[in-house]
Structures are given as structure tokens and as C-alpha cells.
């Protein structure tokens, strides 16, 4: 067992000499004061207060001193280390505060600056509405057909049993294109797509026709809250063997329920269209008052107390139309219907002014943008 070191020579323990200790402490304090950011302070801490720093080495050497020298040396080293760690903590606090203040300035976001991102648009309710209608019919196995908006007079009128002198021609105020002897119009309804479908697809090969045709139509109407010279219709046409009014009623009831909700069905009122015989106006149970005509606060504003809303026209395709379009009217029969899409959307979304659908205000469109 080794005894205490009696040959101790204090001169050999240089690191704890007061001068060196002071020099180490002063160097540490100067480095701390000179550190201008937290990174630098971290390095200073390692160099001057870390395990291998002169002050740490001095501290370790205390243990090697003879007992009588330890107390005094311990005090001096302890004071020097205390001063350094106090200075480190103080500097740390100052630099952290500076760092945070700088981040607040450098990383500040000016939320009032104009954005350079293109705003996300919304799909127009007429687009999504026409798709919704098409989907309802596609789900029943129908196809979607489209036709041109600039249409031959013959397809818009004559083929549909509206001959040149037919009084019903004046039911639809027509935009004619020039020169007049070309007999081309802006289509006044989507019904010419019926004629086109029968002429191009035919049922002569035995395949029945079930098509739905959404599209844009034109009439010389005023532009106001309920009229527009351009609007949208959806046409339906079913040609098969044994088609009856019952199929028409069932189809439109299904359409109404899908569009407006459970319990919303239709009623037919006798009417006249040259292309259908018999013909009917289709009304929809008012989906706001559900046919009652009023609620606790008074008359229903949507149907004006009627309990029903006019929705469109329909009927059994006139055999003369079938014949004009090359369909064997002895063998086949069919039904057809036509509704205003804009009107349908006005009911569905409670729009008061038709013009909101056409004026292209994105604030209107985006409100519907996420509707599928
Ligand atoms: N084409 C008619 C209109 O615009 C609407 C219509 C009525 C279409 C009866 C039809 C129908 O197919 O059968 O006023």
C-alpha cells in the first residue's frame, strides 16, 4: 500500500499556480465576451470549461496535491471555474435572447403581401350539375349524347314535326344565322339531338336507344332574373319495343328523387308538343314544403304556395318523328322529355337570380367548387 507523498514539490504543479489560473480564467472570460452567437459560445464552453480545458485539468490536479495544499488550491480553482460558468450562463442568456429576437425579424411573414399562388378555382355548378344528371342516367344504363349548338333548321324543327308553317314554331323565338337561305339556327332546344341520335344510331339493327343529352340552347329572350337568351336543357330519349307512358313516369320519378331527395316525385299535366303525342308538362313536388304549399311562417316561397314546381315537358314520341328519323314506328315506340338545367339548379341551390349562373364571378363558383 502506498502512503502519502512526502517528497511533494509544489513547484511541479504548475497548473494551479495563481498566475496561470488567473490567465486561464481571464482567457475564458475574454473568449466568452467575444462570442457573438450560440455556436461560438458552444465552442468556447468546450475549450474553456470542457473536460480538457485548463481549468478542468487544474481541478483534476488538486487531487494530486498534498492535503495541506488542497484547500487553498481548491478554493482558487473553484472560484475561477465558478466565475467562468457564471459568465457562460449570462452570455448564453444574452445570446439566446438575441437569437430569438433575430428570428422574429428574419422569419417574419407578412400575411398582407399578395400571394403568388394561383387561387384554386371551382368547377362551375352548371358543369357539375350536368354531370350529376348524366350520372343518374348512366347508372340506369343510358348513354350521354351531344349535338352542335349551331344546328340545321330541319333538325331543330322539321324532323320534330314542326313544319315551316307549324304555329308552334313561334313558341320558340329563334336566332337565325345569315345567310337565311342556309337554314341554320342556334338550336332553340336540345330536342334536335333526339333526331340526330335516331338518324345516326338507328334502331334498325335492333339495338334500343336510351340517351340523355345535356347542352346549351338559345332563344331571343330578355336577360333578367328568370330569362336568358342562352340557357341549358337536358333531353332524354328512350326508343324500344313496348315503351309506354308508365316507363316515362317511372323514369322521371327516379330522376326527381335522385336529384332532389327521397319522396320528391312528379305529376303530369296534359299539354301539347308537336314532337310528342300524348304530351305532358312535368311538375315536381316542391322539395321545400314537400307539397304542402306553406309552413309555420306562411306561404312557401319556392313554389309560391302551389306545392308543385314546373319542371319540363315530356311525352310519347310522335310516330311522325320516328318516321322522319328512319325508325319503324309500327315496331318501336319511345318517350322523350326536356328540362331546363339552370332552372333545376336554381331550385336545388335556392338561387334567386338566373344571372348568377352566367356572370362568371369566381366567388359564386368556388362556393360550389367542392360539390360533386
Ligand atoms: N323541347 C321542349 C322545349 O324546349 C321541351 C320538351 C318537351 C322536350 C317535351 C321533349 C319533350 O323531349 O318530349 O320547350
TrEMBL record:
Cofactors required: Mg(2+)
EC class of the enzyme, as a word: ligase
Catalysis performed (reactions): tRNA(Phe) + L-phenylalanine + ATP = L-phenylalanyl-tRNA(Phe) + AMP + diphosphate + H(+)
All copies of domain Aminoacyl-transfer RNA synthetases class-II family profile, residue ranges: 135-346
Cofactor note: Binds 2 magnesium ions per tetramer.
NCBIfam families referenced in this protein's UniProt entry, alphabetically: pheS (TIGR00468)
Protein family (similarity comment): Belongs to the class-II aminoacyl-tRNA synthetase family. Phe-tRNA synthetase alpha subunit type 1 subfamily.
The protein's name: Phenylalanine--tRNA ligase alpha subunit
Originating organism: Nocardioides daeguensis
Amino acid at each position: 500500500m502506498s502512503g502519502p507523498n512526502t517528497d511533494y514539490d509544489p513547484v511541479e504543479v504548475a497548473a494551479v499556480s495563481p498566475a496561470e489560473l488567473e490567465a486561464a480564467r481571464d482567457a475564458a472570460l475574454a473568449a466568452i465576451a467575444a462570442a457573438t452567437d450560440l455556436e461560438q459560445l458552444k465552442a468556447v464552453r468546450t475549450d474553456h470549461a470542457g473536460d480538457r480545458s485548463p481549468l478542468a485539468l487544474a481541478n483534476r490536479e488538486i487531487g494530486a496535491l498534498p492535503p495541506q495544499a488542497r484547500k487553498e488550491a481548491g478554493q482558487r480553482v473553484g472560484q475561477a471555474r465558478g466565475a467562468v460558468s457564471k459568465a457562460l450562463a449570462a452570455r448564453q442568456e444574452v445570446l439566446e435572447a438575441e437569437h430569438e429576437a433575430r428570428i422574429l425579424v428574419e422569419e417574419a411573414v407578412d400575411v398582407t403581401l399578395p400571394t403568388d399562388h394561383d387561387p384554386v378555382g371551382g368547377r362551375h355548378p352548371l358543369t357539375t350539375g350536368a354531370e350529376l344528371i348524366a350520372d343518374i342516367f348512366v347508372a340506369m344504363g343510358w348513354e350521354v349524347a351531344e349535338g352542335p349548338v349551331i344546328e340545321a333548321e330541319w333538325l331543330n324543327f322539321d324532323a320534330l314535326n314542326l313544319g315551316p308553317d307549324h304555329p308552334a314554331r313561334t313558341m320558340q323565338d329563334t336566332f337565325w344565322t345569315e345567310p337565311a337561305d342556309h337554314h341554320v339556327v342556334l338550336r332553340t332546344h336540345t330536342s334536335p339531338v333526339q333526331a340526330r341520335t335516331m338518324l345516326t344510331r338507328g334502331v334498325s339493327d335492333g339495338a334500343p336507344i336510351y340517351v340523355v343529352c345535356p347542352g346549351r340552347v338559345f332563344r331571343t329572350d330578355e336577360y333578367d332574373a328568370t330569362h336568358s337568351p342562352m340557357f341549358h336543357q337536358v333531353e332524354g330519349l328512350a326508343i324500344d319495343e313496348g315503351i309506354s307512358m308508365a316507363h316515362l313516369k317511372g323514369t322521371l320519378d327516379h330522376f326527381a328523387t335522385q336529384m332532389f331527395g327521397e319522396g320528391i316525385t312528379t305529376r303530369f299535366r296534359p299539354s301539347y308538343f308537336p314532337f310528342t303525342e300524348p304530351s305532358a308538362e312535368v311538375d315536381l313536388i316542391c322539395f321545400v314544403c314537400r307539397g304542402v304549399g306553406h309552413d309555420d311562417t306562411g306561404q312557401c316561397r319556392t313554389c309560391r304556395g302551389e306545392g308543385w314546381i314546373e319542371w319540363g315537358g315530356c311525352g310519347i314520341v310522335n310516330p311522325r318523328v320516328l318516321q322522319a328519323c328512319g325508325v319503324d314506328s309500327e315496331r318501336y315506340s319511345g318517350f322523350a322529355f326536356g328540362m331546363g338545367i339552370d332552372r333545376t339548379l336554381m331550385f336545388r341551390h335556392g338561387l334567386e337570380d338566373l344571372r348568377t349562373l352566367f356572370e362568371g364571378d369566381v366567388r359564386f363558383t368556388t362556393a360550389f367548387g367542392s360539390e360533386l
